[in-house]
Specification:
With 442 residues, this protein is α+β, with helices and mostly antiparallel strands. The protein has 14 helices and 23 strands. The protein has two domains: 289 residues, Rossmann fold; 119 residues, Archaeosine Trna-guanine Transglycosylase, Chain: A, domain 4, CATH 2.30.130.60.
């Protein structure tokens, strides 16, 4: 089933635990999600939870589930939950964030860790980076669905990050691309693509990534390095090399909940943690939490690519928002390319490939404003007109059907359990469906 060289290496690592490990790999993968507390509290979600769930002991908002695919459920479309493998939820749960932190998720697609972080820093900002630009569309779609206001999706290599964000971030999450040994139970292609040569190539690339992004971390900041593989080359040996090259970094302990569901790192690396399927209900994971020694920060000034609106654009946009929302902050309205966006006025976006920044409110087309889907998902709670659908009505809405409404005209936030999942425009007490066609269910 698995490459012979992989089995030999794992027998050497695990010794008398190998049989239990091998047995666990023959079991079905474990499914999980985390609750998006930007949209709904854990307590309120559990009151309406239709799924067969069990709490993940080390993940604050995480739950195992045993149901089938839940990606088409209206709660998923409304951004209440994000389906994420349980062990993959561990790295973010290894640290405690502050509400105003600036955070980088270095290798972010499809967005699970970004989703965990964004709702923990309500007064901060997240740069969700994905080097492979083709994956940024999925990442951006997930950020939109989850309703985050404080996130930019960018596509940079590590060297570009290091140059553009000198001593900028309080926290960097680097879930590095790896040989994927921890996914063997879940992904067949991870098995077929495995080789010792690929392990070595991954280790070289991973070290290069964290060496290039280290200067983007503030002094006193935290770097969480993780992989979904077991190899020493990509994990403990890499961290050891990095620490030897960077004496201003040191390893720190993880919370007891993490320790109780994982094994300590191999060698003189007990502060690092390893997740195995025979010990923890989930796939393979390695986590190391590194701190940068404190000192005076000298961040580089960022030249902002965002622009103010013209007077005509401002008039059109503000008239729309005055009519549609109960409140908004005019200082947060800016322009990125042809899009009108809503973003913290203190955040500057450097000249790098940007797929999403803040909330895309919409576009000005001639003399009218055309709202974007993200306006509803992120700011739906501020709409003057809302419609709260039953589960059956929500499923029809997600199919693209029109629904009756109270008013003759105006834009609505379309909600389920008072959580916005999209929008619609009232015409003669019928709500025309503006849920994006590419997202609709069959």
């Amino acid at each position: 089933m698995f490459p012979k060289e992989f089995e030999e290496r794992m027998k050497e690592l695990l010794k008398n635990e190998y049989e239990a490990f091998e047995s666990a790999l023959n079991e079905a993968p474990v499914k999980a999600f985390h609750i998006n507390t930007k949209k709904i509290s854990v307590e309120d979600f559990l009151k309406i939870n239709p799924f067969d769930t069990e709490k993940i002991p080390y993940a604050k908002n995480g739950f195992y589930f045993s149901d089938g695919k839940i990606g088409n459920h209206p709660y998923h479309h409304a951004g209440m939950i994000y389906v994420q493998e349980p062990s993959a939820q561990a790295p973010v749960n290894c640290i405690t964030t502050e509400p105003d932190w600036k955070v980088l998720d270095m290798c972010a697609a499809p967005g699970g860790k970004s989703s965990q972080i964004a709702c923990q820093i309500p007064n901060g900002f997240l740069f969700s980076n994905e080097y492979v630009s083709s994956r940024c569309k999925i990442l951006s779609g997930n950020i939109e669905r989850m309703g985050y206001e404080n996130t930019a999706v960018i596509s940079c290599d590590a060297l570009t990050i290091g140059k553009n964000f000198t001593e900028y971030f309080d926290l960097i999450i680097c879930d590095a691309p790896c040989s994927g040994e921890g996914m063997f139970r879940k992904e067949e292609n991870a098995v077929s693509e495995w080789s010792l040569e690929n392990v070595e190539k991954c280790a070289i690339r991973q070290l290069e990534i964290i060496e290039n992004i280290k200067n983007a971390l503030k002094k006193g900041g935290t770097l969480v390095y993780s992989t979904c593989t077991y190899s020493l080359e990509e994990n403990e040996e890499l961290i050891k090399t990095f620490l030897e090259n960077n004496p201003d970094f040191y390893l720190t302990e993880t919370p007891d909940e993490i320790k109780n569901n994982s094994s300590q790192g191999i060698g003189n690396m007990e502060y690092t943690r390893r997740f195995y399927p025979h010990i923890n209900k989930g796939e393979g994971q390695f986590v190391a939490v590194l701190k940068k020694k404190k000192g005076e920060n000298t961040p580089k000034e960022i030249k902002d690519i965002l622009l103010p609106l013209t007077k005509q654009e401002e008039k059109i946009v503000c008239e729309f928002l005055d009519e549609t929302l109960t409140s908004y902050d005019k200082k947060k309205i800016k322009k990125h390319n042809d899009s009108i966006i809503y973003i913290d006025e203190n955040i500057k976006i450097p000249k790098v490939p940007v797929f999403l920044c803040g909330v895309k409110l919409g576009t000005v087309q001639k003399n009218y404003f055309q709202p974007h889907h993200q306006l509803f998902t992120a700011l739906g709670h501020l709409f003057r007109k809302k419609i709260n659908l039953s589960l059956n009505e929500a499923e029809k809405y997600l199919h693209g059907e029109t629904i009756p409404c109270e008013f003759d005209k105006g834009w609505y936030a379309v909600c389920i359990e008072n959580v916005a999942m999209g929008g619609g425009k009232a015409v003669n007490k019928t709500l025309k469906n503006h849920y994006p066609k590419g997202l609709r269910t069959l």
